[in-house]
Specification:
- It contains eleven helices and no strands.
- The chain is mainly alpha-helical and 253 residues long.
């Protein structure tokens, strides 16, 4: 298998772990009769942070993007770092991994999904939703949260590994710092929308929700689904563009 094929698998594995643990902590907090029921939003923040830690650690080979907004933001910042083909392969791996991770979380909590009476709680395990539905302001929330994520990734280091042709990514920060960054974004900026900050994180599990035979699941809220896709992409692109004037030392390397 060639280098890009291995990077594709790396992105699938890393994103699978991220979503398995991330959707898993939401299920533990939201679904009936779980040990973590009503554990609170901060527990969700830490669960997603640990999910990022696990995913970044496992996806070291590809640079651990785990997020189309990160991949696109890094490419916008330095188009020579990846080809368009590599960008598309990474995004495909992230979507596949996210879908599979959501399926895994459903299998772990299958009995609790069956016992949960509220369709909204079931959907909330898979995808994000706004506390106050206002598409424009929800979009702003996702743009800002993702901007912070991608901008800090670029600030820590863009170069990747020239010896292995691995693009830069979340692994450039190290697993523990990026996990803390995600916890911080959730605690500070995640209240309005549940902070998808990752198109694959929301779209892959939302597709899983639509396809899986979940008892009493209700609709998948496709009318909102564009917000956690478009917002993070805009945030990632802005971070990639603004890193040049705002991080001149890195931009001139």
């Amino acid at each position: 298998m060639d280098n890009l094929g291995l990077q594709f698998i790396s992105e699938i594995v890393g994103t699978f772990l991220l979503i398995l643990l991330g959707c898993g902590v939401v299920a533990n907090v939201a679904l009936a009769k779980t040990k973590g029921f009503n554990g609170g939003f901060l527990l969700v923040n830490f669960g997603w942070g640990i999910g990022v830690f696990a995913g970044v650690t496992a996806a070291y080979y590809s640079g651990a993007h785990l997020n189309p907004a990160v991949t696109i933001g890094l490419w916008v910042n330095n188009p020579n770092s990846m080809s368009i083909g590599t960008v598309l392969v990474y995004i495909a791996g992230q979507l596949i991994g996210a879908f599979l991770g959501a399926v895994g979380a459903w299998l772990v909590y299958k009995q609790h999904f069956d016992d949960e009476p509220a369709p909204g709680n079931k959907l909330g395990v898979f995808s994000t939703g706004p506390a106050i539905r206002s598409y424009g302001w929800n979009l702003v929330s996702e743009i800002f949260g993702t901007f912070v994520l991608v901008f800090v990734v670029i600030a820590f280091g863009r170069g990747g590994d020239a010896n292995t042709n691995v693009p830069a990514g979340l692994a450039a920060l190290g697993a523990f710092p990026v996990a803390l960054l995600v916890v911080g974004i959730g605690a500070s900026l995640g209240g309005p929308t549940g902070y998808a900050i990752n198109p694959a994180r929301d779209l892959g599990p939302r597709i899983a929700h639509a396809l899986l035979p979940i008892r009493g699941k209700g609709p998948s809220d496709w009318s909102y689904s564009w917000v956690p896709v478009v917002g993070p992409i805009i945030g990632g692109v802005l971070a990639g563009l603004l890193a040049h004037p705002l991080l001149p030392i890195l931009a001139n390397r």
